């Protein structure tokens, strides 16, 4: 499906980080881009709000979901399950609710692209919530690619990416984290948000890609 002035893309999580980079990349093309996030009054964890959002915006062509949640770390024995469930409620069930509400409004030839994370397939102690939450979304992509065909469903799986997610760190600590990571990655660099945006455009643009997880993590999965 080519892009023209009638094309409409909705980006959930599109006002910051990776989502904003996706919006900016799409704005270089013909068509309309709608960015939604908590800062615009959209809460992906509220099913009523999610349903109303898609009903309000009517027909569109592409859905990108980059909205995430703050997942608690630590070993299972020390994990606050209430906080863990809240993280799942936002990223996993919020994403599922958004897809369910969006599907009736997606035009033929459209796409859905979700966001997971490299920890879905990398075993790191203390990341139980992030690992299971993202692994669940990757399994969901496979199922939905079959259930919703010929609508195409994919996911982009980031590794460490330079975004404002780390704004709470000091400048020195953040720079040291990026430097250490780059030294351990086969790519020799930490991804920029624009690198990730290219993955979402690839998923949208490539007619034969569905049920696929696109890894953009600097080689962290093979390091």
From TrEMBL:
Keywords: Oxidoreductase, Plasmid
Gene Ontology molecular function: oxidoreductase activity
Pfam family, one: adh_short_C2
Keyword Oxidoreductase: yes
PANTHER family given in the database record: DIHYDROANTICAPSIN 7-DEHYDROGENASE
Family according to the record: Belongs to the short-chain dehydrogenases/reductases (SDR) family.
Stated name of the protein: Dehydrogenase with variable specificity
Organism from which the protein derives: Phaeobacter gallaeciensis
Organism taxonomic ancestry: Bacteria, Pseudomonadati, Pseudomonadota, Alphaproteobacteria, Rhodobacterales
């Amino acid at each position: 499906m080519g892009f023209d002035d009638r094309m409409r893309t909705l980006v959930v999580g599109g006002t910051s980080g990776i989502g904003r980079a996706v919006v900016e990349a799409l704005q270089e093309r013909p068509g309309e881009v709608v960015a939604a996030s908590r800062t615009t009054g959209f809460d992906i964890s509220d099913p009523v709000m999610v349903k109303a959002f898609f009903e309000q915006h009517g027909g569109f062509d592409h859905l990108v979901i980059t909205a995430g949640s703050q997942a608690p770390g630590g070993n299972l024995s020390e994990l606050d399950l209430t906080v863990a469930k809240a993280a799942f409620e936002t990223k996993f069930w919020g994403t599922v609710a958004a897809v369910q509400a969006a599907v009736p409004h997606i035009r033929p030839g459209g796409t859905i692209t979700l966001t997971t994370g490299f920890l879905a397939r990398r075993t790191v102690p203390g990341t139980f919530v992030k690992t299971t939450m993202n692994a669940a979304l990757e399994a969901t992509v496979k199922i939905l690619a079959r259930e919703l065909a010929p609508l195409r469903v994919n996911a982009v799986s980031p590794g460490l990416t330079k975004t404002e997610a780390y704004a709470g760190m000091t400048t020195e600590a953040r720079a040291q984290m990026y430097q250490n990571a780059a030294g351990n990655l086969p790519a020799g660099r930490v991804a920029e948000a624009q690198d990730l945006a290219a993955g979402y455009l690839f998923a949208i643009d490539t007619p034969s890609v569905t049920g696929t997880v696109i890894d953009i993590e600097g080689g962290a999965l093979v390091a």
